[in-house]
Amino acid sequence: MARNGSYGQTARALLRATHPEPAAAVTAVAGLLALAAGHDPLDAALVAATVAASQLAVGWTNDAVDAGRDAAVGRPGKPIVAGDLSRRTVAVAAGIAAVVTPLLALRFGWAATGVAVLGLMSALAYNWPLKRTALSPLPYAVSFAALPGFVVLALPATPPLWLLAAGGLLGAGAHFANVLPDLADDAATGVCGLPHRLGGGGSALAAAGLLLAATVVLVAFAAGLPGWLRLVALLVTATALVAGWYAGRVEVATGRRPTALFRAFILVALVDVGLLLAGGRVL
Q1: Which of 1, 72, 172, 227 has the fewest CB atoms within 10 Å distance of its CB?
Q2: Does residue 129 register a pLDDT over 80?
Q3: What's the CA gap between 216 and 210, in Å, rounded?
């Protein structure tokens, strides 16, 4: 009984180490996008499973690589820091998930598999070493562009350039928005990516500009969208980003953790995904 309980505790700790909320969100987006692109339900489920395996590999690698930093800045919610998992266990789990990713993708051919692996390797390169360099937005841009690229290549079909561009812009914007709340902790542990070099104000401006550009690309090129929906998408995006910008300034001025722009990013991401789904097929 104790042994089973131990296994259950380990499984729960591993789940927490995957960064479950963003991993689940990205996996769900992949599955919905696959359906919108024209995959049948079984293939859409396999697309989602491939992306889920990739997300597991990235999340576990992130926690294994950053365990020392997480301990230094006092993040007891991290399973390794809390002593619920060893770094080795998490690293082994990451390696298994990384191997499973291309095995699942092979069902869709070599081109789709290559793009799935590209997205995975790019995200792993962010975890180490690019997070600490001025190239830190690049893996986000590549991996977010690879996601719709994989979905479309798996049909098989050729992904339109506008779709890849929108994914890349959304990913780069996500990087700046995601890092904003942790700038101080990152600086204290020697992380100096591009957002840290630009500072809070420059990073907020970069995040807002990139996220708005992603919506503009989708509004301009996504097929099947009525004019009113395009206008609403632009208005919601602009309003969310402006509100996030000003709320973020208030948070900084009052000494609170600046999370407003990240919440605005989540809303913009939902708008962008909605544009693709509302437009039917992405081709």
Answers
A1: 1
A2: yes
A3: 10
Distance CA 51, CA 115 (A): 11
Tracing tokens 């561009």 back to the chain, one arrives at 165
Residues 6+ apart with CB under 8 A from 150: 47, 50, 51, 105, 108, 112, 115, 116, 119
Residue 10's CATH number: 1.10.357.140
**pTM exceeds 0.85, yes or no:** yes
- Same domain, residue pair 34 and 147: yes
